[in-house]
Design goal:
Radius of gyration: 18 Å
CATH superfamily: P-loop containing nucleotide triphosphate hydrolases
Strand order of the largest sheet: 6-7-8-3-9-10
Bound molecules: adenosine-5'-triphosphate, magnesium ion
Distance between the termini: 19 Å
CATH architecture: 3-Layer(aba) Sandwich
Largest sheet: 6 strands, mixed
CATH topology: Rossmann fold
Length: 227
Amino acid sequence: MGKRIVMGKDIEFSYGDNKVLDGVSFHIDEGEFVGIIGPNGSAKSTLLKLMLGLLKPDKGKMELFGERADSFSDFHKLGYISQEVRDFNPMFPATVEEIVGVNLAARKGLFKKRKLRDDARIKEVLRVVGMDGFGKSKIGNLSGGQKQRVFIARALANNPTALFMDEPLVGVDQESRDTFYKLMNILNREYGISLVMVSHDIEVLSEQVSRTIRLNDGRIHSGQDGG
Ligand SMILES: Nc1ncnc2c1ncn2[C@@H]1O[C@H](COP(=O)(O)OP(=O)(O)OP(=O)(O)O)[C@@H](O)[C@H]1O
Ligand SMILES: [Mg+2]
């Protein structure tokens, strides 16, 4: 068994008076590909944010790599592709390589010049996601599926142990979905990156993942093993 990536115990969380999680316990281990499923408003995104320490549980304990999630600071170990990323302003004038390199730049101060090493890293992750040759393209000119792969490349640039994705396939056509799942399998099996993915695409997701966490009415209902 791999190391423990996330551990939640008796997690409760409310927005004001609205209790959206009412005692959930689970864990995710290194090497797993876990799907989080459940109807609209079942707190899938909220659970992901709690896992990443972006929200703090009202009760219970959330740990990332054995540390309290809300004080965890080893962020290069984590990639997060939020639900909001697909709303990325298409008029934003940045190029693909600028987008992919932005975290690398942030790590050493925004105003320092990008190093050659970073350029090589950007090339490499673009190759992994099948977007080599697109470095100079404007992000706004890419298709939904291509943009998605650029955001995955950005997450990969920091060499994460685990990748967390919130509904990465919304607005992405069937062919790009197939490409996406192929890429996820490579990341998971060849690169050993643990994957946690929220999706509505329950049928397909269940075939692809090693395990699902099913949320409903503030609780986790019996998960299933995938294929
Ligand atoms: N910032 C917020 N303030 C108040 N209520 C919120 C906030 N974010 C989410 N909620 C509420 O909490 C509940 C869970 O929301 P959440 O976004 O986690 O669900 P979800 O399962 O991700 O839904 P979807 O499938 O639509 O993405 C919903 O009832 C939602 O309205
Ligand atoms: Mg959501």
